[in-house]
Amino acid sequence: MSGTLRAHAVEIFTTNYDLLFEEAFERVRAPYFDGFTGGHSPFFDPVTVAGDDLPARWSRLWKLHGSIGWKLDNGAVVRGHGRAATQLVYPDHLKYDLTQKQPYAALFERLKQFLLTPDTLVLAIGFSFRDAHVCAVLDEALAMNANSAVFAFQFGTLDKEEAACRLAYDRPNLSVYAADGAVISGVAGKWRPGEPPKNWEDIRASFWGARNSGEPPLFLLGDFARFTRFCALAQATELSRPAASEVSSVGGASQAITEDAP
Asked: Which of 66, 87, 197, 199 is 20 to 30 A distant from 11 in Cα terms?
């Protein structure tokens, strides 16, 4: 995210409570904004969330269901002190009506406005599409903006990703890429890979192959670890067959990012 000059900021919407994104950004000194500002007890600033007038190099991190480190202070949600602040603040049972309160109302409105932006692309991974309040925003925004698109990479097979597929049948600008098939433009089908073009085997191995030895090949990018490695390989200047000590198995083929990769 921090290795490219961008006209528009990268925005991450997550329903997870953990601090892994924050720790990753800070480890590489990449600036980000999560809706809070301040030093002692950072407070939520919905005006900046809605206005989106920060530099594009600042990534946006929106935690739709709350986070470790959030706490109530005189009735307002403030951000605490990292992992030491274990009082989690989230909507009770994640009910739709409770997400209409701050800071949740501003974060869900940000998701809607992001999806309504022309030519917006959302890559969804690790999301079950069973959160009704999140899917309601997706459904409404995708219906209003035919120029936005959602690519949902799902870990399971099509028959196990019923919630995602149901939304994809109604909204053709949402595509589901499951292990054994996909729903694209509202049409479901199973994967049938043909003969790869010249020098394509290494590239295909980054997204197609067996998860475990002896299993049939399938689409791999619904696995978060495979997806992040695919993103890393996309930044590489060359795919190579490394020495045994450097091997990382991807879909049955050994690959590595060469040393000259950024």
From this structure: 87
